[in-house]
Amino acid sequence: MHVVYPAIVSALLFSIGVYGVLARRNTILVLMSVELMLNAVNLNLVVFDVWLRDRLHGGQVLTLFVIVIAAAEIGLGLAIVLALYRNRQTVDLDHLRALAEPSPPGVTATSDATPGTDPAIPGTALAHATSGDETAPSAAGPERTSGRREDS
Predict the structure, then answer these.
(1) Which biological process terms from the Gene Ontology are attached to this UniProt entry (predicted)?
(2) Tell me, what's the pLDDT at 45?
């Protein structure tokens, strides 16, 4: 068997996968393109394992590891995509660039934040640890007690 033919097929698969990752905007299609790239790598591993006549079949063993990692990656990736869809109602990568939560309808985001407030969470004030002011509310909310008595 010539090693050139499967290597060309693998290069084509990998190129299609790279194009899919770079050109697609749908998250599911990007995940499918990553899987194409991993399958191209698997094809190369098996072909070169057979061509080099490895007694331990290291390429095939490594291919099994790549398949297991790919299965875990696709499971985790789909879980993240489902969580994003529940929160943002879209899987378009252009709309998922910002890390902040989308603002509710009718509320405009402003970049001018007043000192002592967190711009990501409207209506909350940051704690001033350096000022020594213990009356300033913290971003974590009111202090909670453990519920047990402290006897002195």
Answers:
(1) ATP synthesis coupled electron transport
(2) 93
Structure tokens at 102: 């989308």
Predicted TM-score of the model (pTM): 0.62
Domains of the chain: 4-96 (1.10.287.3510)
Cα–Cα distance, 141 to 125 (Å, whole number)? 9
Cβ atoms of 28 and 11 within 8 Å: the answer is no
- Token digits for 30? 């990007």
The whole-angstrom distance between residue 43's C-alpha and the CA centroid of its chain comes to 26
What is the rounded CA–CA span in Å between residue 62 and residue 77? 22
Question: For 24-145, where are the alpha helices, taking DSSP H only?
Answer: 27-52, 58-88
Q: Find the angle CA(21)-CA(25)-CA(28) to the nearest 5 degrees.
A: 75
The alpha carbon of 29 is separated from its chain's Cα centroid by a whole number of angstroms, namely 14
For the stretch 32-81, pLDDT in tens is 999 999 999 999 999 999 999 888 889 999 999 999 999 999 999 999 99
